[in-house]
Design a protein that fits this description.
Elements lengths: L2 E4 L2 E4 L8 H13 L2 H7 L4 H14 L6 H14 L4 H17 L10 H10 L3 E5 L4 H9 L10 E5 L10 H11 L6 E5 L2 H9 L3 E5 L15 E3 L5 E4 L4
Parallel strand pairs: 1-8, 2-3, 2-5, 3-4, 5-6, 6-7
Helix pairs in contact: 1-5, 2-4, 3-4, 3-5, 5-7, 8-9
């Protein structure tokens, strides 16, 4: 069954939606884990790193935590797959450099990029809202197997500039930032809590269910579901 939506923009989750969670967990997480220590000890004075370290210290309640203690906290959050903003910030710094060096190339499911190009060509704006930092998102879309895809994307949102992904207020912030009415926005994600939050903010929402992904068996609640992007037809009325 094809799902049809007349909207002005589509907002995309990444893990489990456009891309395999397994790639992030099996490739990107170990890559960042092996480089946290060097980042913290050699570049702790850089503004983005220093801000994230201050946030780690605040979250663990240890204002004087040294680099070793901060690294220990980051690794514990990584083990828990916790979507902590400072963790995602520091991962983003490391991953962006890994992509730039050619160590890393991002992953997209085969059905995704053709549909993104078709929707973009039809005048539908595309945005990303992921727990991964904006820095990581930009690197992800710049270094895809099909080349630089950033020209398809009108904006990037994460838990720092929008808020938690299961909070309806975050989706209201994105709608306000884009200048698009809530009922003209479509959110695609594999996580039911995120879909619920988007709908509570007045958005359209479709759950993406891909076999092998962590939320596949759980399902997407009472939301419409698609197994691939080509099961979704997105158009933008000109009236």
């Amino acid at each position: 069954m094809t799902l049809r939506h007349d909207v002005d923009a589509v907002v995309l989750d990444i893990e489990g939606t456009t891309s395999a969670t397994g790639f992030v967990v099996d490739v990107l997480y170990p890559y960042s884990r092996s480089r946290f220590a060097a980042l913290l000890t050699e570049r702790g004075d850089e503004p983005e790193v220093a801000r994230a370290v201050a946030q780690v210290r605040e979250e663990i309640g240890e204002p004087d935590a040294d680099a070793e203690r901060v690294e220990k906290a980051l690794n514990a959050w990584l083990d828990e797959d916790r979507k902590a903003t400072p963790l995602k910030t520091l991962q983003g710094v490391i991953w962006a450099e890994g992509f730039a060096r050619g160590d890393l190339v991002s992953h997209f499911y085969d059905d995704v990029v053709p549909e993104l190009r078709a929707w973009h060509a039809a005048g539908v704006r595309l945005y990303v809202y992921s727990s991964g930092s904006v820095t990581a998102q930009r690197a992800w879309f710049t270094n895809s197997p099909e080349g630089d895809l950033t020209s398809l994307v009108s904006g990037l949102y994460d838990t720092e500039n929008a808020g938690p992904k299961q909070d309806a207020q975050s989706y209201r912030r994105i709608a306000s930032a884009t200048g698009i009415d809530a009922d003209r926005l479509l959110f695609l994600s594999d996580r039911p809590g995120e879909l619920d939050a988007a709908r509570a903010a007045g958005w359209h929402a479709v759950g993406i269910r891909r076999p092998g992904e962590p939320y596949y068996e759980q399902g997407v609640g009472d939301h419409a579901a698609a197994g691939t992007f080509d099961e979704i037809t997105v158009s933008r009325s000109t009236s």
